[in-house]
Amino acid sequence: MTDEPATTTDVTGTERAATGATPEDGDVTGAQVAGTAGPDDGTSRSGDGAAGGDDVLVTVEGLEVHFPIKRGIVLERTVGYVYAVDGVDLTIRRGETYGLVGESGCGKTTLGRGLLRLVEPTGGRVVFDDIDVSTLKGERLRKSRRRMQMIFQDPLSSLDPRQSVESILIEGMRAHGLDSGKESTRARLVELLDSVGLPESALHKYPHEFSGGQRQRIGIARALAVEPDLIVADEPVSALDVSVQAQVLNLLEELQQRLGLTYLVIAHDLAVVRHISDRIGVMYLGSLVEEASSDEMYAEPMHPYTKALLSAVPVPDPTVEDEREQILLTGDLPSPANPPTGCRFHTRCPWKQETLCDTDRPQLRDVGGGHRVACHYAEDILAGRITSHEVEPELVHPDS
Ligand SMILES: Nc1ncnc2c1ncn2[C@@H]1O[C@H](COP(=O)(O)OP(=O)(O)OP(=O)(O)O)[C@@H](O)[C@H]1O
């Protein structure tokens, strides 16, 4: 099959099918979503009424996933742990998109997998729609899994190359007793493909016959096949061409509105997260360091790590002067097998306060309106104990 239609992105990020590109070539049907915004347009969705209400679908409490480090061939013994997720508390509201960001290795994927119990948490709990899924076993666990699906970064490696699209889609339906007879199952498969913008003819093709964007559409259709409530999307567009990224993000948004889905979107690209998320959580070395609505996170970041991440994102309009505070992160991400004492960020923090930050681990505290931050410095500023001016020389400005 050919690639998806080429797109153009105008200055506001509005995606359009390029002139002459039909939906094409039969590959992407007319059901494909008309873009409203691209991933790099500098806009976010909070405040546009798309956010879920206060109805909580997922509660994560003190979640821990510690992987044992084993040594020895004959007598294997545990010599330490990778603290991949180390005490995360968060809630995801029904119908919202929660964006999770942070550097590679900070534990985003493990958190998503721990939430779905694709990896066993070593501590804490996950409550999904009032059911504590951390303790579920057997049939009840299987049933809860139907309601929580995952889509992956690399659709090619997550789709079995030996299975046709029909077989890929039917597998999950069958496992959950959702294939209810030949005719209705066939109609459902066609409906699923249409909902992700693929034609019926795709059913008998194999993953390698599709472009990257089309394969991601198949991954989305596979997740939708079992009628989930929550989808954890792990870097859903980072393996795709920029022109295709907006199409897939728009598709996810359209499906959310139509089907009432709730998303946890994991991404390292802050432009992607901003566009699609109602709220954003920033992770550093296994913990959340800040959480806020998408608009507030971009307008008023408080944690120095968040400020550093955001100052690395280019401004969408190159003609506008970038007046943001620039913070450059120094040093590497410490190993999650040997995290620093106290605040885990203190080894790279321009605002580190001696003894306090390297001994006392700050807790995530609500600083108003659901904006949560785990930082002694931010707390001191808010309490009026210090002003940001006192530490300004430590910050790296673009001209320095
Ligand atoms: N099965 C495992 N066994 C041991 N360590 C693991 C395992 N899975 C992940 N890790 C480690 O846990 C830490 C967090 O990994 P994770 O993949 O969750 O991070 P991430 O933020 O999603 O990074 P990326 O964006 O690169 O995927 C890393 O140090 C990783 O090497």
UniProtKB/TrEMBL annotation:
Entry-linked SUPFAM superfamilies: P-loop containing nucleoside triphosphate hydrolases (SSF52540)
SMART domains named in the record: AAA
Keyword terms of this UniProt record: ATP-binding, Nucleotide-binding, Transport
Biological processes per GO annotation: peptide transport; transmembrane transport
Chain residue ranges for the region called Disordered: 1-50
Transmembrane segments: none
Listed Gene3D superfamilies: P-loop containing nucleotide triphosphate hydrolases
InterPro entries xref list: AAA+_ATPase, ABC_transp_ATP-bind, ABC_transporter-like_ATP-bd, ABC_transporter-like_CS, Oligopep_ABC_C, P-loop_NTPase
Ranges annotated as biased composition (Polar residues): 1-12
Sequence ranges assigned to domain ABC transporter in this UniProt record: 69-310
UniProt GO molecular function: ATP binding; ATP hydrolysis activity
NCBIfam families hit by this protein: oligo_HPY
Family affiliation: Belongs to the ABC transporter superfamily.
Protein name according to UniProt: Peptide/nickel transport system ATP-binding protein
Species the sequence originates in: Prauserella sediminis
